[in-house]
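Running co-folding for glutamine.
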Amino acid sequence: MSLSISEALSESKQLAGYSDSSRLDAELFLAAALNCSREYIYTWPNDEVSRRQLNTYHSYLERRRGGEPVAYILGRQAFWDFNLTVNESVLIPRPETEQLVEWAIDLLSCCSSDCVHIADLGTGSGAIALALASTNHFWQLSAVDVSEGALKVARMNAEELNLTNIDYIHASWCDGFTQDKFDLIVANPPYVAKGDPHLREGDLPFEPELALISDESGKADIRQIAQSSREFLKDDSWLLLEHGYDQKQEVEIILKRLGYKDIECRQDYAGIDRMTIGKWFV
Ligand code: GLN
């Protein structure tokens, strides 16, 4: 059996009820199976899809029907200016985390660029560290993760992007630092409470629990990061944290009690309280 591109795409119906973006998913799967761009698919709807390509495409559709995230099926996720490699060892980078990067860049804009040192705690795929490292090649990034699997993915992404201003630390939060002092410590830590019903929705059941779930109703890791970062922040420098939609006040209290000043929360584009900064004075 052979099908044209447009006939193959009409099979996106199979994903109805399994995905909110069935047509887009199918386009991405077909483009990957054909090793071409989505634009090619629109331009050449009558091109024939070979049997081998069709098999690959069908295997993607099948996996998607099983709930697997598109990013894990294709092994890629767009973030910032890049197309990152991702796998089950890492959280799939979210668009709202790009706003965390934008805020980090704003905070760093007043630093003279020659000796800026930034830590990305729980780097996962490297998304935040890579976006910052590519913004200014003089900035030095420390990408930290407790998961060897995640660090492997982060390294792979950095290599593909030719970014060399990153070092990798296999440790939990600040445990791997010694004499280091940073101009900014940024983290998208796990902040979802154990048993939260969101964990059963969308892509989350496939993502590493280590990157999602935290004790104390999702606050334990935020508290630990805020506490241990104080020792490794330069005077007048910032801690920037992503957090859950309902954690603004609790994060503010944690930072205040630990002595951070100028605490401010910002919303993401969806209007959700999503990230908070605190300034550290020695
Ligand atoms: N923002 C993610 C979600 O709720 C969670 C990521 C995280 O815990 N850092 O889908």
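Result summary
Residues 91, 94, 188-192, 198, 204, 212 surround glutamine (CB under 6 Å).
Residues 199 and 281 are 37 Å apart (CA to CA).
Job closed.
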